[in-house]
Amino acid sequence: MTTPADVHDVRDPEQPGRLLTIERDALIPLLRGRADDDFALPVAACPGWTVRSVLAHCSAALTRVVENRFEPGVFSPESNDRDIAERDGWSNAQVIDELERGMTEAGAVIARADGKLDGLALGEWVHAGDVREAFGEPGAYGGAGLPDALDLLARITRERGRVPLHADLDDRDEPLRLGESGGERPPGRFIGDGPTLIRLCTGRPVDCAPAFELAGVEAEELNIFG
């Protein structure tokens, strides 16, 4: 018998690119309207990084995807620091331009990668939430891309065999199943909204999030980037 979870596990190759496009259309105008001083704001989710650091990291990662540049050690902390440093002489506008091109062009490449790069698209979307939070903008880790982000998160956690979790979301009709137990442990339970689930599953602060319930699993176990 086919279950809703089985249907959701069928990869939609267009979903990562769609998520990037949705976020591009919302984020880029926001960035172009900010003063240069705002790009020096610290990002709580990425200690030691400013808004500009996060954006330079994101634009570099997407450019690597578009140009198929994946040398050994790529996306390691050292590699990320080098990518950011390479853009030190750029203006903020140049970083935004590169980010916009990457968010436009990377989707087609990710679609052809058989799922290997889907997590990168989700990470870019999460970093956009980091920037919104640094700016004090509403809707961090939410917005029009949230449904695709949640579906992508659920599939990635199941493919990676992460800790099982059943999420009853305020902003979604059907429960969302994350992770895969293989019958070895009962699933945890989350009750709350989608952005808070995103925060928990990506290691973002939840102290300012709406009230939620988490049982049968520790928050640290949910972090896909941990």
UniProtKB/TrEMBL annotation:
GO MF annotations in UniProt: isomerase activity
Keyword Transcription: no
Tagged with keyword Isomerase: yes
Coiled coil: none
Keywords, ordered alphabetically: Isomerase
Residues in Mycothiol-dependent maleylpyruvate isomerase metal-binding domain copies: 22-115
Gene3D superfamilies: dinb family like domain
NCBIfam families noted in UniProt: maleylpyruvate isomerase family mycothiol-dependent enzyme (TIGR03083)
Identification of the protein by name: Maleylpyruvate isomerase family mycothiol-dependent enzyme
